[in-house]
Amino acid sequence: MRTQVAIIGAGPSGLLLGQLLHRSGIDNVILERHTGEHVLSRIRAGVIEQGAVDLINEAGVGARMQREGLIHDGTQICFAGERHRIDFRALTGAGVMVYGQTEITRDLMDGRAASGQSTVYEAQDVSLHDFAGEKPRVRYRNDGKETEVACDFIAGCDGFHGVSRQSVPRDSIRNYERVYPFGWLGLLSDTPPVSEELIYIHHPSGFALCSMRSHARSRYYLQCSLAEQVEDWPDERFWHELRLRLDREAQERLVTGPSIEKSIAPLRSFVAEPMRFGRMFLAGDAAHIVPPTGAKGLNLAASDVWYLSRALIEFYREKSTAGLDQYSDRALARIWKAERFSWWMTMLLHTFPDSSEFDRKVQLAELDYLVKSRAAATALAENYVGLPY
Ligand code: APR
Ligand code: PHB
């Protein structure tokens, strides 16, 4: 088999890249380890910056998002029992789109099926070869059969646990990492959201987040310890603990119901440098992870794909390697800004097991400063909507 770009992974990064390349006449194959249903069963965040919205539209799969997505012009921050609003629109002129990442993946998969480009689900033992030279190849097994794909380039879009980053010689890559001493327990339910906007909550018992997927579907999170299991959290316990962390008005408005999904995710900051190794390029979670507090995961994946798709299109149209040569530096400049913002939001809002009384007082002072200072609120709003990149 031969293709121009072999893409590893059918998450948002791989599917979006495949779609953009296809629309520019560049042939590509996607190799995905799991089934499509399995990929769609993972519940992930749902806040999309305008830049990512534009790219999804450009990929030709934005129609449902435009119909069903919710435009949010601000967010709410709650601490010391009081809720405060950060007005994105007034402070920056921009808002964000609230639309589940799972739905984006579904729209991309539908677009992929319509494109006629090849996608191999349940591709086992994917391995990457000779990407340091001119003729890279990818091998995989499917239905007991070995296949080799010869290509011009490999795009490693296979997430944090993928094979692409692992295929790079150890002395050619450097990893930067911070692991946080807590996780997020998420619950999805078909209940109306407690608020029209997201509420980020700082509380002595731990951070909480009230988010949504639609006017009828809510997504809530509670900071939890890493020792805890989902089985420790029957729905009643979750709702009880969430209510404790809410302000009074939200406590009264909260509508509870059976969970449709519940899961615990650890929080991690991670960056691998560089993101290019000869003819192999990393994009999305394969190269970096942010804690979800800043809602940047999918947006960063989209910005990598923006740089990489432009660079590949430029290569095939103009025979220029300029974009490919600059890809890693350009992508990393944005990634580190989003890493900083996500780290800062995480430090600001969570309760740290080893923090002192002094640390907690400073945290509250910073929150108070944030909601009283126009400059501080503007900095948060700009980062959240994705402007300073
Ligand atoms: N071979 C083939 N496919 C693989 C392999 C492998 N060895 N390893 C992993 N994959 C697949 C996974 O099954 C998954 O479907 O790669 C895909 C990677 O998808 P994601 O983990 O969703 O990563 P990405 O597409 O970069 O999406 C980034 O999704 O993970 C969230 O928060 C993250 O919002 C961000 C966005
Ligand atoms: C979500 O809706 O799942 C969500 C929203 C905002 C975040 C993280 C997750 O910061």
List keywords for this structure.
single chain, 389 residues, alpha+beta, six-stranded mixed sheet, 13 helices, 39% helix, binds adenosine-5-diphosphoribose, binds P-hydroxybenzoic acid
What does this structure look like?
This protein is an alpha+beta fold and 389 residues long. It has 13 helices and 20 strands. It has helices spanning 12-23, 36-40, 50-58, 63-68, 88-92, 101-115, 163-166, 235-245, 248-253, 297-318, 322-349, 357-372, 374-385, and strands spanning 5-8, 28-31, 47-48, 70-72, 74-79, 82-87, 96-98, 118-120, 124-129, 137-142, 145-150, 153-156, 174-189, 199-201, 208-212, 218-224, 259-273, 276-277, 280-282, 288-289. The chain has an eight-stranded mixed β-sheet. A hairpin with a 2-residue loop joins strand 5 (74-79) and strand 6 (82-87). It is globular and about 60 Å long. The two termini are 39 Å apart. It binds adenosine-5-diphosphoribose and P-hydroxybenzoic acid (PHB). Residues 45-47, 198, 209, 211, 219, 292-293, 295 line the site of P-hydroxybenzoic acid (PHB).
Based on secondary structure, the structural category is alpha+beta
Which term fits the overall shape? globular
Mean pLDDT: 97
**Spatial extent as radius of gyration:** 21 Å
Fold topology:
Elements: E1 5-8, H1 12-23, E2 28-31, H2 36-40, E3 47-48, H3 50-58, H4 63-68, E4 70-72, E5 74-79, E6 82-87, H5 88-92, E7 96-98, H6 101-115, E8 118-120, E9 124-129, E10 137-142, E11 145-150, E12 153-156, H7 163-166, E13 174-189, E14 199-201, E15 208-212, E16 218-224, H8 235-245, H9 248-253, E17 259-273, E18 276-277, E19 280-282, E20 288-289, H10 297-318, H11 322-349, H12 357-372, H13 374-385
Parallel strand pairs: 1-2, 1-12, 2-8, 5-14, 12-19
Antiparallel strand pairs: 3-7, 4-7, 5-6, 9-10, 10-11, 13-16, 13-17, 14-15, 15-16, 17-20, 18-19
Helix pairs in contact: 1-6, 1-10, 10-11, 12-13
Bound molecules: adenosine-5-diphosphoribose and P-hydroxybenzoic acid.
The site of P-hydroxybenzoic acid has 10 residues, from strand 15.
